[in-house]
């Protein structure tokens, strides 16, 4: 039951002259200052809109909204005055967030179709067609809901129907240009929503095999997808990944996705995701309270699949590979025990002291395979790797560990653009000392302190060539159950898809 596109907000663009829906949003400047179409409508209603603005003390500040119901003298059912503040200062993400805020207002009302008029109030930092596209992106992201398993959609108590905004028409000066700009935004929005779907989906529905199937569906966008089954994984000697998978009756999968939109023979950028479809902890079992959240332990892999969708959907001029390791971490008679020593694909032996530190085992092998096979020009891994990163940074920042300052500043820069916040954390010899093992090359547990840092150090041991720029992003706090905002109301956030898409767009497309 994949979410059907019909469940999703449909966005179209129209000129300023075209007929509008009965519910209309008007973007106005600080003051409030009404740009031409808004001013005309206000005139038509003998100043009803400016009077409403005054009554509501609406000053047109960014993201302030005045809701005018049944304005007298106008045929509109409802007019939203949408404050956009100083448009000379508003960045791309401000417009995305504004679109989200307005989408939320419209979505909460009994409205299925709405028009929003996006006009400039004078000078704007961004061209107006880009403003319109960003606004629409925000509205799309906000409209996402994961309710496919709720069979009773109408509330029986009060007879209220779950009426949802289905269609948004964005009126702007150059709709053709806006539509073109939106095509890329749409691909990104679809990638984000795909990642959200994967994170939200329960583990009984989405095992390693089903997850791989969903990734395989990217073939329809022109992504080459290869799925390695358990036999092939064994043949490649991914002993660390298999040590995690062996406790589950559901077999592992490794998925390799390639998007070849760049120059022939140019080394790809590589993205690697932790895809633990459910993490019980294994024999080092987790406490039961809150364990249900571990259906989201594939947030890194979901981000990679969403990113590949976005890159292919907007035909990015880059060679990119996405590799994910899909496993389930279960306790059973076949499960790995604490103290077991396993051999990773790299040849390094690992003493498994805690079977709940499983993500690093999965990544060790997938990272190794990615480097050996693709010799990428850079690599980023994403994982819901540690609870410790949430202790350090809370739930609105992801941890960024990076062996290369240029890559780090690329990621921090993209972070600043999309608002998906990252904070740089240390890689250091001292953390490596903490994971030296008496019995093997490395152990998967670092001791009491700096748990996110020892996990990152562990991964660093699987960077083949120290000159390869590599970043590890720990999104345990941000991928799921993160604070809700204007563009995300879902448990699975789709965090990182926009960020990495922007990283690629700004640094690796040519
Ligand atoms: N998947 C968890 C990390 C996690 C915890 C993600 C909570 C999201 C929310 C990971 O596999 C794990 O269990 N990590 C352990 C590592 C420890 C055993 C060294 C942790 O953080 O407690
Ligand atoms: Mn775990
Ligand atoms: Zn885990």
Provide the helix percentage: 25-40%
Tally of individual domains:
2
Strand order of the largest sheet: 7-8-10-9-13-17-14-15
CATH class of the largest domain: Alpha Beta
Q: Helix tally? A: 15
Kindly state the mean pLDDT as a whole number?
96
Largest beta-sheet details = 8 strands, mixed
CATH topology of the largest domain: Aminopeptidase
Low-confidence stretches: none
Q: What oligomeric state do these chains adopt?
A: single chain
The CATH architecture name of the largest domain reads 3-Layer(aba) Sandwich
Q: Tally the beta strands.
A: 17
| Overall shape | elongated
Distance linking N and C termini = 38 Å
Radius of gyration: 24 Å
What is the H level of CATH, i.e. the homologous superfamily of the largest domain? Zn peptidases
Beta-strand share of residues = 15-25%
Q: What structural category characterises the helix and strand content? A: alpha/beta
């Amino acid at each position: 039951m994949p979410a059907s596109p019909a469940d999703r907000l449909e966005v179209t663009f129209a000129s300023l002259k075209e007929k509008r829906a009965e519910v209309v949003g008007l973007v106005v400047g600080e003051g409030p200052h009404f740009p031409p179409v808004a001013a005309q409508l206000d005139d038509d209603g003998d100043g009803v809109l400016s009077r409403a603005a005054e009554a509501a003390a609406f000053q047109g500040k960014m993201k302030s909204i005045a809701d005018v119901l049944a304005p007298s003298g106008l045929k509109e059912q409802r007019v939203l005055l949408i404050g956009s503040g100083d448009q000379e200062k508003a960045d791309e993400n401000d417009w995305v967030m504004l679109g989200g805020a307005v989408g939320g207002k419209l979505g909460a009302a009994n409205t299925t179709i709405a028009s929003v008029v996006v006009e400039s109030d004078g000078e704007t930092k961004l061209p107006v067609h880009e403003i319109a596209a960003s606004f629409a992106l925000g509205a799309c992201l906000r409209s996402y809901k994961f309710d496919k398993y709720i069979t009773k959609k109408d509330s029986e108590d009060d007879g209220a129907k779950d009426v949802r905004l289905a269609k948004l028409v964005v009126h702007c000066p150059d709709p053709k240009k806006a539509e073109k700009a939106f095509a890329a935004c749409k691909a990104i929005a679809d990638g984000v929503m795909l990642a959200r779907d994967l994170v939200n989906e329960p583990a009984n529905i989405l095992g390693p095999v089903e997850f791989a199937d969903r990734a395989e569906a990217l073939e329809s966008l022109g992504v080459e997808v290869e799925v390695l089954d358990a036999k092939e994984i064994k043949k490649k000697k991914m002993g660390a990944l298999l040590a995690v998978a062996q406790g589950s009756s559901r077999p592992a999968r490794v998925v390799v996705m390639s998007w070849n939109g760049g120059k022939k023979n140019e080394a790809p950028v590589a993205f690697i995701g932790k895809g633990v479809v459910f993490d019980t902890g294994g024999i080092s079992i987790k406490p039961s309270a809150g364990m249900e959240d571990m259906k989201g332990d594939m947030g890194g892999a979901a981000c990679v699949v969403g990113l590949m969708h976005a890159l292919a959907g907007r035909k990015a001029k880059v060679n990119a590979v996405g590799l994910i390791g899909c496993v389930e971490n279960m306790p059973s008679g076949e499960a790995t025990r604490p103290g077991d020593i396993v051999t990773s694909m790299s040849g390094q032996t690992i003493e498994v002291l805690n079977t709940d530190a499983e993500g690093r085992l999965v990544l060790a092998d997938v990272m190794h395979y990615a480097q050996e096979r693709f010799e990428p020009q850079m690599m980023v891994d994403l994982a819901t790797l540690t609870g410790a990163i949430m202790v350090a940074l809370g739930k609105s920042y992801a941890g960024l560990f990076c062996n290369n300052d240029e890559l780090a500043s690329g990621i921090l820069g993209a972070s600043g653009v999309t608002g998906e916040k990252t904070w740089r954390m240390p890689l250091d010899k001292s953390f490596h000392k903490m994971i030296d093992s008496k019995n093997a090359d490395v152990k998967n547990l670092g001791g009491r302190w700096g748990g996110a840092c020892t996990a990152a150090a562990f991964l660093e041991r699987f960077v083949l060539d120290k000159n390869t720029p590599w970043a590890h992003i720990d999104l345990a706090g941000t991928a799921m159950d993160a604070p809700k905002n204007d563009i995300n109301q879902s448990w699975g956030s789709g965090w990182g898809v926009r960020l990495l898409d922007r990283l690629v767009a700004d640094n690796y497309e040519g």
